[in-house]
Design brief:
α6 (190-201) packs antiparallel against α7 (223-247). This protein has a seven-stranded mixed sheet with strand order 1-16-15-12-11-10-9, with no helix packed on it. A seven-stranded mixed sheet has the order 2-3-4-5-6-7-8, with helices on one face. The protein has a two-stranded antiparallel sheet with strand order 13-14. The chain has helices at residues 50-59, 75-78, 81-87, 102-106, 109-115, 190-201, 223-247, 251-262, 275-290; strands at residues 2-4, 8-9, 14-18, 29-35, 38-42, 67-70, 94-98, 125-128, 133-136, 139-145, 154-158, 163-167, 172-175, 178-180, 209-212, 216-219. It has a single domain (2-221), classed as Ribonuclease Z/Hydroxyacylglutathione hydrolase-like (Metallo-beta-lactamase, Chain A), CATH 3.60.15.10. It contains nine helices and 16 strands.
Length: 295
């Protein structure tokens, strides 16, 4: 697989921009699709990065943005919506999201309480449904429900460029040696997640690349093998964390075991820089508690 992780145009219409969440590179992708002067951003990122995102948009001649599509309602994908709109004065920016996301966006208290980050209410959101087409002056983008990670996750299929933007719906693959599962609370649903993997697998003949929120664009994929690997990875991580948690509730121990088994060669989460991984593992443990797998 070819991994594209630098800020660039990566097909005729699509650009990758690094949100630099937590001031770290290679953690959160923002995408912009442009056709004949009409531009749509996929996800908004965090508020702290908004001014830098505007600067990058101008550097790529992608300013202003006309539409912002939110792949789901988690804070790291939606927090900057209000700030970005303010920084694009005079532009009537349309915000789009799954019909299932409207309530969380309008009433973010539940998500704010869980994640510990403040997201302002987002109103006047255009609801999207499975099969909807967004027309960017002739470039047609199809919406797919990719539920599981959340119950409001959607994907954007660009048939012309044979690419799909999936947000967090499939996996976090930060580089060749760093993968993370998607079973985080508060509303992960395993049966829906497995259906989403099957749905992506059925699209394999129409795709040359997949664009992750975390992180970057992966091209020249054997999608059948890829989906099989993601499914196997999901169950392996799930069963391993359950086993380690039943041995000891120590977050440090579980994190160390995860690192050694699944990402021993990671340049992002090294043995010397393992505290960031603990943050992730705690989410996965809480996700398993939410699923009723551990207590």
């Amino acid at each position: 697989m070819l991994f594209l992780n630098s800020e660039r145009r990566f097909n005729d219409n699509s650009y990758l921009i690094d949100d630099m969440i937590f001031r770290l590179p290679g953690q959160l992708s923002i995408y912009v699709i442009e056709n004949n002067g009409l531009r749509m951003m996929i996800d908004a990122g965090v508020e702290l990065s908004a001014r830098k995102i505007i600067k990058k948009l101008k550097n790529f001649d992608l300013f202003p943005i006309h539409k912002i599509l939110l792949t789901h309602s988690h804070f790291d994908h939606v927090q900057a919506v209000g700030k970005l709109k303010k920084l694009m004065k005079g532009i009537d920016v349309e915000v789009l999201a799954s019909e299932k996301a409207i309530s969380n966006l309008k009433n973010p208290e539940k998500m704010n309480q869980y994640f510990g980050y403040n997201v302002d209410p987002i109103s006047n959101v255009t609801p999207l449904h499975e099969g909807d087409i967004i027309d960017l002056k002739g470039l047609q983008l199809e919406i797919f429900n990719f539920f599981g990670h959340t119950q409001d996750s959607i994907a954007v299929f660009d048939k012309k460029n044979r690419n799909i933007f999936v947000g967090d719906a499939i996996i976090d693959k930060l580089d060749h040696d760093t993968m993370m599962p998607e079973f985080v609370p508060p509303d992960f649903n395993e049966s829906q997640y497995l259906k989403t993997l099957e749905k992506l697998g059925n699209m394999k003949d129409d795709l040359n690349s997949i664009s992750f929120a975390h992180f970057g664009v992966w091209k020249d994929i054997d999608f059948k093998k890829f989906i099989d690997k993601v499914r196997e990875f999901h169950f392996d991580v799930k069963n391993s964390i359950i086993q380690w948690y039943n041995e000891t509730h120590s977050l440090e121990y579980i994190t160390s075991m995860y690192h050694d088994k699944f990402i021993p060669n990671s340049a992002i989460f090294t043995k010397e820089n393992i505290h960031g991984l603990e943050f992730e593992i705690e989410w996965f443990i809480n996700g398993l508690k939410f699923m009723g797998e551990i207590s």
